[in-house]
Amino acid sequence: MPVVVPVKFAYASRDLWFDPQGLDIVEADHAICSTERGTEIGLVTADPFEVPEDELSAPLKPVLRIATDDDLDYADELAQRGDDAMEDFRRLVKQNELDMKPVGVEYLFGGEKVVFYFAAEDRVDFRQLVKDLSSCFHTRIDMRQIGVRDETRLVGGYAHCGQELCCTRFGGQFEPVSIRMAKEQDLPLNSAKISGVCGRLMCCLRYEFEAYKDFKSRAPKKKTLIDTPLGKAKIQEYNTPREQLVLRLESGKVFRVNLSDMTCSEGCKKRAEEQGCSCRPDCVTRDILERIESPDIALALMELDREAGIDVGDGLSRADRLVPEAPARHRRQRSGEHGGEERSQRGQRGRGGDDRGQGAADEQTPRRRRRRSGAGAGADSTRDNRGSAREATEGQAPSRRRRRHLSSEERDDAFRAAAAREAASSASEKDGAPGRSRRRRHTSASQSGQPTGERSQSKPQVPSVADQVASGEVKVTRRRPGDGGGARAAEHGAGALTADDQAPRRRRRRSRKPRGGADGADNTPSAE
């Protein structure tokens, strides 16, 4: 079998085979070769290897020699001359008004001729252009028309994916690309997304076409119902690079499963044998669902086991359970035997275990809220006094629950009851208690260090409100909306308001529309 060595040239679309003629040539060497156009320099892309004779379409051209440093310097000089010739090439094309786009100029290594590459949509009559180029460069001229794909490969660039263009990086012959390949890969049929820099369909559409075609031939079709332990599931989409299917259950849960993990049911195998085709999987077993790392699927399987009567617990490990170490104090239950023992222990710790703490624990009296200081405390004390007076009047025991506001009649009854109690206590003091009260005042004055004469200089006694209400000197009235802050009630006397006075006054609303005459002036009467 003949031995060949592949060589890549600058403006060639693929590697060409040459006869190494026993030269010690390896990959990455530059070689001077004899081609149909003349002598050219190229890059060796692989070591020499043997090929069958039936793969050779024509006799092999020889490799003249391995390029030296002088040859490489001369090749660089020719490349620079080609870049300089592009300016004259563009100028002459514009001068002849030809519909073509200059792409590049190549000087052959042997100096036989200069090749001018251009791109055009249609055929171009460039006979006059060849004459002008010959008179300008004084050498043999060769014109080559190339397509937009070859133009992009020669110029180079980057694709939408951020990588270098496939035609520049891989090279090779261009293979046809159709829109069917984009449909097979479920790509959007948008020309801006599936077209390359050259304006044609991207070359990479053909690279993965066979993989997509093979996967779809083995996988069940979309919208097919798959049997699972959790019910029927519908195939929503494919993940071809990973060979996975996205399934959606009737409950709305979505999960992914590998195509290799799916199995075929007996009915599916029977139909495949009858029709003489391959069997496509249509079942997902329970062990496959258990391997899926999805909390929704795990909870659904647990619920399925509960319905079947299997005790699966709560499905949480010890580390996942949230158990409070001690409940909040304001949420503890203070009723029952446990609550009494707990309060008694707390009373012994706080009061040193005295009788008061024990008595409080036995009575199991709930702890009251701490009263606010300032004006709020005064308001709370007044409210508690009213509630206590009303409960005492009705003969009920006081409770912690906040009562509603007293009416005017209930307030009057409470004041009268307080006045009666105070009158009874003063009468008892006149009978025999004054001496004791007098001694108590004397003792307190001596303990405080003040002389007894100073205590006698106290403020004159003023009758309390309860006494004034009981005697009838003060009439208790309730302020009503619209009574002018109690002024009208004072004029008419307590309880002397008429039905018209007791009714709340309605505020007169002004009309928003101006009342005007011919001059448009505002004639609305004033509030006075």
Automatic annotation (TrEMBL):
Domain PSP1 C-terminal: 61-146
Residue ranges, compositional bias (Low complexity): 416-427
Comp. bias intervals (Polar residues): 444-461
Biased composition (Basic residues): 505-515
Ranges of Basic and acidic residues composition bias in the record: 334-357, 381-393, 406-415
Pfam families according to UniProt: PSP1
Region (Disordered): 319-528
Family annotation (NCBIfam families): RicT_YaaT_fam
Name the UniProt record assigns to this protein: PSP1 C-terminal domain-containing protein
The organism of origin for this protein: Collinsella acetigenes
